[in-house]
Amino acid sequence: MERKIMVTADGSTTIHIPEWDEQYHSKYGAIQEAKHVFIKNGLSLFSDQDISILEIGFGTGLNCFITFLEAPKKNLNIDYVGVEAYPVVSEEVEKMNYANQLNAIEFSAIFNQIHQQEWEVKSDISPNFSLLKRKQFFNDINDENKFNLIYFDAFGARVQPELWTEEIFEKMYKALKTGGVLVTYSAKGSVRRAMLTVGFLVEKIPGPPGKREMLRATKA
What we know:
This protein has 220 residues and is an alpha/beta fold. It has a single domain, classed as 3-Layer(aba) Sandwich (Rossmann fold), CATH 3.40.50. 25% of the residues lie in helices and 29% in strands. It contains 7 helices and 11 strands. The chain has helices spanning 30-40, 62-70, 90-93, 98-101, 108-116, 166-175, 189-197; strands spanning 4-7, 13-17, 22-23, 49-56, 76-83, 123-126, 129-134, 147-152, 176-184, 201-206, 213-218. A hairpin with a 5-residue loop joins strand 1 and strand 2. It is globular, with a radius of gyration of 16 Å. The N and C termini lie far apart (40 Å).
């Protein structure tokens, strides 16, 4: 499918797939969405500890990069696992302007390192941040009781409904430790019901720009 670089409303870039009319991030602001959904309503629940994060849909690396930048502010040691079946290519990575838009030019090399790191090999990005990228389909995930936090950032259910099923969320539930949290930009009723069915405690909370609500699910 054709893929185009798109500038979102907050000036940050994303990848647009015309055939699906779908983007990797919100057209209302890629960085704004990432900060609101995954940092404010996910990462900010943790501080002064070691945590493991699973990202479903590694994509452009934006969520990983912002998490890396935020970790020292919260005194977090982070073990980050990103799952992606179809990695972005280097030509697309070069056109992502996140370091500039996040006022983090001094960490441009880190953003590049995140993408250049070999798949299936865990590496230390910094003393307090390790990264493992797994080239994997979501339905092949079989982690158990491993993660404190899941960033669920798959393409929307409108174009890939198979990624938002009870089967997938059961895998997410098993992957989390007790008390672990999953956050996603989606607020669809079918998604919420799938989460509830597999045992999550689910809350609707205010969404990022362009979305009224989002979901946060906790493993009791």
